[in-house]
Amino acid sequence: MEYVTLNNGVQMPILGYGVYQISDQAECEKCVLDAISVGYRSIDTAQAYRNEEAVGRAIKKSGVPREELFITTKVWISNAGYEQAKASIKESLRKLQLDYLDLVLIHQPFGDYYGTYRALEELYKAGTLRAIGVSNFYPDRYIDLVQFTEVVPAVNQVETHVFNQQVKAQEIMEKYHTQIESWGPFAEGKNNLFTNTTLQTVGDQYHKSTAQVALRYLIQRGVVVIPKTVSRNRMEENMNVFDFELTPEDMARIAALDTGVSAFFSHYDPQVVENLTGYGKQGLE
């Protein structure tokens, strides 16, 4: 496994396992156990995924020492604000059966996210959180937060894949020493990623799949990736991306796939923001 060093010196695996959309508790627990047994040491969950308890049970059953694991969760919109965020993180710790978290992110830049970030800063200084950051913060909101908070976000998790490569956003994050992390590294299969001819042609040179090439491309750009799958075989395939290296020519060919637009949604679309904030206000119970 390769690691990145966050802006506070904490080491984070560059490849982790995400549990988004694994809402069935028994399935999620099994998947996390499989992932850990395959060799994953970074697990990414969120309050909004409603599977923190399943992740916690898997961590406990895995038998892997806590210090070898890197566990991330995210504070949802309905828990925004200083007091609510603190209480929600305490609840996340209870569900995950952990004494500390390696990384906590603000899931979306809506509601009182400044109050949320103050809570994160306080818990970070107390040692309850080893690193703090944000998710889905576009450059404008990201820069605004950096300029008016004490602790620079260690991570910004944003949609990043071969069709939306976030090149400019990554440059801005690097300027302020924030690590870019990809959600949706496979674009959930959109734009026929798994049968893309460019990725297939590049992969054939190394006897690798399109998925492995897509992950390798991001890793070589220094992007942390957290691919999700419920298949143990796919987990193993996704892990097997450290035994080959793309050439500059390969990288350039894949860079040309960038459309510069989201494959999912844009915070600059008022309807999207109305939907997200409306859903967020409903709470998680």
Please tell me about this protein's structure.
The chain has 285 residues and is of the alpha/beta class. The chain has one domain (3-279): TIM Barrel. Helix content is 42%, strand content 13%. The chain contains eleven helices and ten strands. It has helices spanning 25-38, 52-62, 82-96, 113-126, 139-147, 167-175, 197-206, 210-220, 232-239, 248-255, 270-281, and strands at 3-5, 11-13, 17-18, 42-44, 70-75, 103-106, 132-135, 155-159, 179-183, 224-225. It has an eight-stranded parallel beta sheet with strand order 3-4-5-6-7-8-9-10. Strands 1-2 form a two-stranded antiparallel sheet. The protein is globular, with a radius of gyration of 18 Å. The model has no long low-confidence stretch (mean pLDDT 97). Residues 16-258 form the NADP-dependent oxidoreductase domain. It comes from Paenibacillus borealis. InterPro entries: AKR, Aldo/ket_reductase_CS, NAD(P)_OxRdtase_dom_sf, NADP_OxRdtase_dom. Belongs to the aldo/keto reductase family. Keywords: NADP, Oxidoreductase.
